[in-house]
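Question (not urgent): is this output format expected?
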Amino acid sequence: MRNPPRTPMTTTLNRPLTVFLSDPVPGITAVPHEDNLRYFNVTIDGPSGSPYEGGKFKLELFLPDDYPMLAPKVRFLTKIYHPNIDRLGRICLDVLKANWSPALQVRTILLSIQALLSSPNPDDPLANEVAEEWKNNEQNAIKTAREWTERFAQ
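Got this back:
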């Protein structure tokens, strides 16, 4: 049986995975669903030296119909205590919104999310209460982030 011809649609959808698999990032995996090439299961290891160290965080990544003209939709499935990630797992990250460019790769997005775990930004929050805690009592916020990592990301 012959393979079906590659269409621009399948080529566009396979490119992010091909680039990612050809140059994997330590601590990040992205696996497409067999029945939907637009949907990826992602795992990001918590960066060393961060309150998320030792955690394995599950995310979902979806490539919209207009990808790469529109940014991928990414959200955390693992509960996390972070000022830039809300309780629904939505992420406040410039490259997913205003600074999106079709030239960016899935790899770049995932690296940016991993970097966000190393450097929370309470001045541009999505979770306001967490951001306030981070600003007013950073040591307690870091302690809570570690506790949540142990509880939800092991």
